Amino acid sequence: MTAEQVHAAAMAKAATLIEALPWLARFHGQVVVLKYGGNAMADDELRAAFAQDVVFLRYAGLRPVVVHGGGPQINAQLDRLGIPTTFAAGLRVTTKETMDVVRMVLTGQVNREIVGLINEHGPFAVGMSGEDAQLLTARRMCAEVDGEPVDLGQVGEVVAVNAGAVRALLADGRIPVISSVARSESGEVLNVNADTAAAAVAVELGAAKLVFLTDVAGLYPRWNGEDAASALAARPISQLTADELAALMPGLSDGMLPKMAGCLSAVRGGVPQAHVLDGRLPHAILLEVFTDSGIGTMVVPTPAHHRSNP
Fold this sequence. Notes:
The chain is of the alpha/beta class. It is 42% helix and 24% strand. It has eleven helices and 14 strands. It has helices at residues 3-27, 39-42, 44-59, 71-81, 96-119, 164-171, 194-205, 231-234, 242-248, 257-268, 284-290; strands spanning 31-36, 63-68, 87-88, 91-92, 125-129, 136-145, 148-161, 175-179, 181-183, 189-192, 209-214, 239-241, 274-278, 297-300. A hairpin with a 5-residue loop joins strand 9 and strand 10 (189-192). Helix 3 packs across helix 5, helix 4 crosses helix 5 (96-119) and helix 7 packs parallel to helix 10 (257-268).
């Protein structure tokens, strides 16, 4: 590499750092809730990149909180045990036997792995379940499929968040890592969708951002199937308001529905921005938080503001 090339590379790095400056100032001291799952959780390189991103946020003066699921890991363990599993409206039908596996995998395996990855960079992450310190209180919920109610078993929706323990960890400079298992008021253990749990936690903490890492580049506009190659069909929506998202909700796929419902409830609950990012892209979190253009789909409260990050 020539001296000129070395100089150009150094200048490019400096420009990237300077671009991050206003976002560092904007989000310093702010809570950012990260919902972690999908392929980003299954690939070793992406897992390592996610941990680096979380620690970078911490060192940059933000206060990250991780909420995670673990669908692929749960499926794998259920398969090993020969326990059948079904889904309705994008949610896992959870019998008592299934719930024992969900609890074991989420809190005993996946949570421990995430904590370990983050703590390779310092004594930051503290793992906890939604059961701990009554963080998440939930009640049983039913789904509706083709106009008919479906019993989901031990599946819950969050009705209360007691975030005192999370705030104490944040005040101590720690990174809370929360598995999406909750208890009902009667003490029943419930499987809670991690997307909706992350939204509830973000609202309670007054987060500046809620970020969902998923397996697509963002929310795609609806199209008629005849123009798949068009630029409109190929590109995700960059920004939309809560009301615009609500109008799209009936047409969303089961997999995307909980994430976008989480975005909607978060921004309507006071979170200024909710994002859906492609977790298959290394360091997607840093690209969203610290660059001018941002990536993925951003949901903001109504009325709309021009796309700027923030």
